[in-house]
Write the structure tokens for this entry.
Amino acid sequence: MTYDVYEPGTDGPGSGGPWRVALEYSNQGERKPPTLVQIGRTEHADRATALEAAIAAAREFSPPDPWSEQSRAIYRDGPDGFLVILEGATSTFHMSVRIIAAVPREAQ
């Protein structure tokens, strides 16, 4: 007996780009809102270029926390993004960096 294995498709609304880099990170501890999302203004025509921009952002973006960054570890988090662990002098924070494509209004 065999079973079909689910594999997410790449077609559908928004799957063809254009692509942008999105960053999600903590908003300085107790401040509101607790999480901020920042979407880049640059549009990338293809996924590969957008992923290059995303890994550059994962290496270079400096969120408000931690106060004194001691180290940074970057992990691939699925096909479209990265999880970044930031070790500070007194605490650890994380941020998410991924590529996104807008879904056209008529498809929402």
